[in-house]
Amino acid sequence: MQDQLTAELLLDAYRQGVFPMSEARDDPDVFWVNPVRRGIFPLGHFHISRSLKRIILKEDYTVTVSQAFPDVVRACAERPETWINETIFELYCDLAKKQHAHSVEIWSDGQLIGGVYGIIIGAAFFGESMFSRKKNASKIALAYLHHRLLHTGFLLFDTQFLTRHLASLGAIEISRAGYRFKLQHALESKADFLSPDYSVSTLSITQDNGQTS
């Protein structure tokens, strides 16, 4: 199947509501996943705790967008168990070159300490994976990503599955039918992830990125 799997086929799969995974880093096979229950971030309802707000406002980090996409994907795969094999890595890097995949990177002292990446089609962002090499780095990346999606026209922020970590940040779970409804609406709309009119500050992140408690 790998020989036939292309970036274009991958995009078609996302349009149908399915996404690829592998059993392990060294497993050459790829299989398709179509969850009965789907995780999403309702845009405008990202939860920022008081502690995360303090961390964001401290601003002892640097944020970049799609400046180290392959490094982010590799870092996401640096764990004992991963669904990112070489085929998936190469496909996503190909999509990044075609502006259908983007990443948000968090840096400290010149070192990549956290990030998140995903696929873009229309006004849908399909979050794929994230990582932290320093505490809270992935939360910072998600906060900046959510703010960008909220302010550049996106309608759907797909997280694939709902985890406790994502739920603590405001993600919810919806039915497959509910997801397909939101997906279709987002695919028929347009968004501009790299909009030149977009601007961000730590204050805007903590004030209007979502709910704080």
Radius of gyration: 16 Å
Q: Which geometry do the CA atoms define?
A: globular
The name CATH uses for the topology is Aminopeptidase
The CATH superfamily is: Leucyl/phenylalanyl-tRNA-protein transferase, C-terminal domain
Straight-line distance between termini: 47 Å
What is the CATH level 1 assignment?
A: Alpha Beta
Numbering strands along the chain, what is their spatial order in the largest sheet? 5-6-7-8-9-3-10
Describe this structure in words.
The protein is α+β, with helices and mostly antiparallel strands. It has a single domain, classed as 3-Layer(aba) Sandwich (Aminopeptidase), CATH 3.40.630.70. Helix content is 36%, strand content 27%. It contains 8 helices and 11 strands. It has helices spanning 7-15, 50-58, 69-76, 86-97, 137-151, 164-168, 176-187, 202-208, and strands spanning 19-21, 31-33, 37-40, 46-48, 62-65, 101-108, 111-121, 124-132, 156-160, 172-175, 210-212. The strands form 3 sheets. A 7-stranded mixed sheet has the order 5-6-7-8-9-3-10, sandwiched between helices. Strands 1-2 form a two-stranded antiparallel ribbon. Strands 4-11 form a two-stranded parallel ribbon. Helix 3 runs antiparallel to helix 4 (86-97). The protein is globular, with a radius of gyration of 16 Å. The mean pLDDT is 94.
